[in-house]
């Protein structure tokens, strides 16, 4: 792939046969870092994300984002000819990402034994709703249901109101990060320690449950069941959203005693630094409503800009609650190249989030947005040794 040498994963080869978000996002992350990613889709249909709004004309903007830095081919893995081609493609790959319901590849005839016969060094990353084992393994798994099953949805929202599902595909993105991390750990084990290539089994709900480590420990030892508490953080006070005199909302985090002492000085309440009712976080947690009211009253006396300047000057973490419009105007985002322009085959330029994290020597690059369906068929299949007539025959047969 052009310019992939700039990334730390230059030379790594990935084949992505997954659909929608979690596993494709993992492959996309590694593509940002220079890996060569080949996206495989069903002929005539493609990944469902191609039809996800918002659309600009006939182009899905979510597709432009989630499938960046990938070359795209079509191939029907359910057909024997398609499987033969797939196994030939697989020979030179390091990683395979898939997210079909457990047992699907086996049913098609692409079980692990056959995959490893084609490439003994392959690392296979399985992403599913509930994992490859257990009584729920064959259940349909989507991000929203997995988030609810993980326990995360149940603690999100306000008391006496329904639980809130995240307004983005949070479980998919978090799982994608874990999948990419697992893939890199398995690669290190294989290449640095001469270890056996292995399978990675990651469930959508488990990645979200991993974030609830405090809840797990607290319940196991104390029987504490956390309930919905709005914007409050159960482990620290004061933390949450507060409104300024000019009716703007900001988020304050004073989760350590040292930070709270600085805030107390700002509020003209230096007495709270030594008062045993407020001087320690665990005591403030007991008096959450009281402390929150004190802070709210202080916020209500200043404009958002005044609060921001006072807190920045005194080392108290405060942030305005941004919209995407605010983000596009902010100089910090610009300075960090957090938003980059990428060429799109029909829209010209599309702005996308930049590469995270930043590498000092091998920064990686975003070369392209999501490719058109089968855009690289001729290139890939010709490199595989297929003639023009063979490619045309496979198109007529619906194999590619």
UniProtKB/TrEMBL annotation:
Q: Which UniProt keywords apply?
A: Transferase
The record's annotation in Pfam families points to: CoA_transf_3
Q: Name one GO molecular function term.
A: CoA-transferase activity
This protein's superkingdom? Answer: Bacteria
Database matches in SUPFAM superfamilies: CoA-transferase family III (CaiB/BaiF)
Quote the protein name from its UniProt record: Succinyl-CoA--D-citramalate CoA-transferase
